[in-house]
Every structure is written in structure tokens, then in C-alpha cells.
Amino acid sequence: MTTVPLAELPGRPCPIAASLELVGERWALLVVREIALGSTRFGDIVRGTGAPRDRIAARLKTLEAAGVIGRTAYQERPERFDYHLTESGQDLLSVLDALLAWGDKHVVAPDDPRRLKRYRRLTA
Predict the structure, then answer these.
(1) In this structure, are residues 53 and 44 in contact, taking their beta carbons and an 8 Å threshold?
(2) Which of 23, 48, 94, 124 could bond 34 through an S-S bridge, CB–CB 3.0 to 4.6 Å?
(3) Could you confirm whether the keyword Cytoplasm appears in this record (predicted)?
(4) What is the pLDDT of residues 1-55, one digit of tens each?
């Protein structure tokens, strides 16, 4: 698991700032969301996030190095992987549920035609 030394953070160093160093980039949390929703293969994660393939490849490497996700090879040539959340990644799901609730209440317009009546929580 990657740790972030508080002394290396600008401004007021705290666990929030340290956490954002690892997962604060937009695509990182969307990758975690996609894996939690059952998209475990690269192409499915790319489709679910809508991000460029190179960004997702970079985020997967970063999240794996940080211990948030793990991967298991399912094919050798070419090498391909299934991705899964580690305990650390599972612990992020309550954070994503909080962002979901906040965004639903404060960010998405009530009359947005793509708004769902109910969103699926990531935690039980």
C-alpha cells in the first residue's frame, strides 16, 4: 500500500489531502466505481468511464501500485487481466456512496432527462 508523507503535501497537510494525492484524479474514482459495479476487464472499464484508453491504463497502474486494486491474468498472449478491489478499494465504496448522494442532491438537476429515479449504492 502506498502512503503519502504529510510533509510532502503543500498547504495544510492532512489525511484528506493525502487521500486526494492517490485517488483525487477524476478517472481514479470512476475506475473504482466501475470495478465495484462488476466491470472487471479493461474494455468494460473504459466503456463505463468514457475515458481515453491511455488514461484508464495509467489509472489502473497507479491504483494497483497504491494497493487499491489488484489484477489477475486471464490470458497470456496478449497479456490481459481481470481487475478487483482490494480491502483498501472496498473501503473507498462508502466514500463513493457519499459522493453519489451529495451529487444527486446538490449537483444533478432534478429535471435532467438522464437522471435516474434511484441510483444503486455501492455498499450493502
Answers:
(1) no
(2) 48
(3) no
(4) 778 889 999 999 999 999 998 899 989 999 999 999 999 999 999 999 999 999 9
Contacts with 70 (C-beta within 8 Å, 6 or more apart), sequence order: 64, 83, 84, 85, 86
Domains of the chain, with CATH numbers? 13-106 (1.10.10.10)
Say how far apart CA 44 and CA 1 lie, in whole Å: 25
Q: Evaluate whether 69 touches 89 at the Cβ level (below 8 Å).
A: yes
CB atoms within 10 A of CB 82: 14
- What does the alpha-carbon distance between residue 83 and residue 71 come to, in Å, rounded to a whole number? 4
For 78-119, give the DSSP string: TTEEEEEE-HHHHHTHHHHHHHHHHHHHHTS-TT-TT--SSP
